[in-house]
Amino acid sequence: MPRRRTPGAHRLVAPIAGAAAIGVAALVLLAALLALGGYDVASALAALWRGSFGSAYAFFSSTLVRATPLLLAGLAVALAFRAGVWNIGAEGQLLAGATGAIAGAALPLPGPVRLALALLFAAIAGGAWALPAALLRRRGVLEVISTIMLNFIALNLVGYLVRGPLQEPTHAYPQSQTIDAAARLPRFPGTRLHLGVGIALAAAVALGILMRRHAWGFRVRVVGANPRAAASAGLIDVPRVTLEVFLVSGALAGLAGGIEATGVTYALYEGMSPGYGYTAIAVALLARLDPLLVAPSALLFGALEAGATAMQRDAGVPSAFVTVVEGSLVLLVLLLPVVTRAWAARSLGARRADG
Amino acid sequence: MSVNGEFLAATVRTATPLLLAATGELVVERAGLIYVGIEGSILAGALAAAAGAWAAGTGTGVILAMFAGALMAALFALFVVRWQTEQIVTGTAITLVATGATAALYHVLFGPEGAGLRIPVIHPRVVPGLSAIPFVGNALFAQSVFTYAAIIAIVAVWWGLARTHLGLALRACGERPSAARAAGVATGGMRAGAAIFAGALGGAAGASLVLVQSGTFAEGMSAGRGFIAIAIVALGRWRAGGVLIAALAFGAASALQYLFQARGWALPYQTFLALPYVATLIALATTRARGSAPAALGQAEME
User: Fold this and answer.
1) What percent of chain B clears pLDDT 90, i.e. is strictly above it?
2) Taking CB atoms and an 8 Å limit, are A149 and B224 in contact across chains?
3) Residue B97 is part of which domain span?
4) Is A316 exposed, middle or buried (0-12, 13-18, 19+ CB in 10 A)?
5) pLDDT at A1
6) Count of alpha carbons within 13 angstroms of residue B153, beta-carbon side
7) How far is B25 from chain A (nearest CA, A)?
8) The pLDDT of residue B51
9) What is the pLDDT of residues A108-129, one digit of tens each?
10) Chain A residues within 8 A of B99 when measuring between CB atoms
């Protein structure tokens, strides 16, 4: 994707202003859709607000809890897209990660050790789930196709596991055994928010520093901007960087699944992710693929998802309305460079006319 | 019907929507655009078919489905042709919008459960005489009108791409857009037209899912068939004949379920659900397809 860069502080100001404008546009679009659908717009939007930012409980226990997996999965997508790797497979990698976490948490070891292993296994499983796509890409297979296929395979694999080898002992429900309290992520007192939010923020900062200040981040950006030049310059091993991006991206999405399993659901089941891996694409694009901007973007989408749940509960509005808004946000984000280009061209033309 | 005969019939039946969508995707990819949103076109077509058939009969359903599929593709074309946005991301967003919009519309039109939705379906048309051919007769000549239309479409696309000026110009847009433009081809219009054609066929694929296979609409019922169609185009090496064979192969992979059930071979249900996706990966892994892709596939035409 072509990206224009402005130097210095403008680099952050322009996207934030753009994101704010897009946030407003999202609300306007949602209101219009609700009106078209014949819903009471005011009460639906009130429910959206109540469920997202309306109270401390909504914010900490609903919005932030949903923003956490979106932040990690959003980082996964942002890193991949930055390198020109079209990883649409965060959803499958997330499920693989959750499966790994459940396996790690079930080991006969002390609680904190199991928790650490669960998160480690989650990252490894997520990376492993991205590996086939990386290897297939070398054989000329578009990763868009392979990662989406892997999403469907992961979902069916989880469906099989929770009815077979990993089913809870009573065999009554299609889900895994619940992780016991000792191996769960600690919660902040009085909320449903867990320590995973800290892990996710740390990952965002680490990836941000890596991308800006480290040679690896530079290589990733060069490979994404112009792989042919990167290869012919002779300094960058493009296939290797691409493979590393696949693995790290998968590991981040897997970690999102691991944190969700040990911090929120405490068990594995098919519906444990309401499409976080797909929403993450919108999260990353709204953040213009900048790891540090993924955090506020994930917060916005976490609020949307949290608000959607409240809207469904209190106003009977299906959460699909919010999916429409999320998809439209991506389209709007794609138009931002088009609009800024047009403005730049116009102001340039005006300046020429003045001079 | 024998078990093998039923397997063949199921193969052709499940291949039909895949072939329809893949035929559309073949055309748009030969024009140089990769349309990931074909999944969204299928979904939009599925809902439009259900609503149209419910309101005014199956014919209306099919027409509305093709229109809805084309509409999603027109939106895609507007973005990637007019505004030169990245094709894969745009297509993914189109799919996301279609997923949400169809679920929301279904909810609005048919209520929270949608359980009361009864729509007319399209039954197979048995071709007298030909359907009596042993073994393949039922598989080929006792299918719905969608199957016959899909076969006609892929033959027409083969002929159109290989033998007409329009096809030559369209292929030029996918190989060397700058040369095509220099030769006087309106590359943008050609690409947009190809996308809309693909969307319409995707919509028809969605209609066949609703009106032939399931008899109702369900959220996300396309279940990745659009993405499989994209894989089919790659496996068929961007040629009409290859696409036809690849689509039938996928139909067979899905139809294995019937064969296994009939023979009493026990495998977890999820194995069959995952099979088409696993088969896609294995098939893509074992063929070297990229060499035959259109040279300018995925690239904006202003370069």
Assistant:
1) 46
2) yes
3) 11-117+133-252+288-292
4) middle
5) 47
6) 27
7) 13
8) 92
9) 999 899 999 999 999 999 999 9
10) 320, 323, 327
Give B215 to chain A, closest Cα distance, Å.
22
Report how far residue B278's alpha carbon sits from residue B227's, in angstroms, rounded to the nearest whole number.
13
ipTM of the complex: 0.83
**pLDDT-based confidence at residue B255 (cuts at 50, 70, 90):** confident
Report yes or no on A15 lying in a domain: yes
Residue range A127-146, pLDDT digits in tens: 999 999 999 998 888 888 89
Rounded alpha-carbon distances, angstroms, from residue A36 to A29, A33, B101, B186: 10, 5, 12, 37
Percent of the residues in chain A that have a pLDDT greater than 70, as a whole number: 92
Report the domain count for chain A: 1
Residue A96 lies in a domain: yes
Residue A266 touches chain B, beta carbons under 8 Å: no
Chain B interface includes A259 (CB < 8 A):
no
| Number of Cβ atoms within 10 Å of the Cβ of B90 | 27
**What's the rounded Cα separation, in Å, for the pair A278 and A301?**
12
Question: Residue B207 in contact with residue B45, Cβ under 8 Å?
Answer: yes
Full domain range(s) for residue A331: 10-349
The overall pTM is greater than 0.90: no
| Residue A138 belongs to domain with CATH number | 1.10.3470
- Total domains, chain B: 1
Residue A226 lies in a domain: yes
Contacts of B218 in chain A (CB under 8 A): none
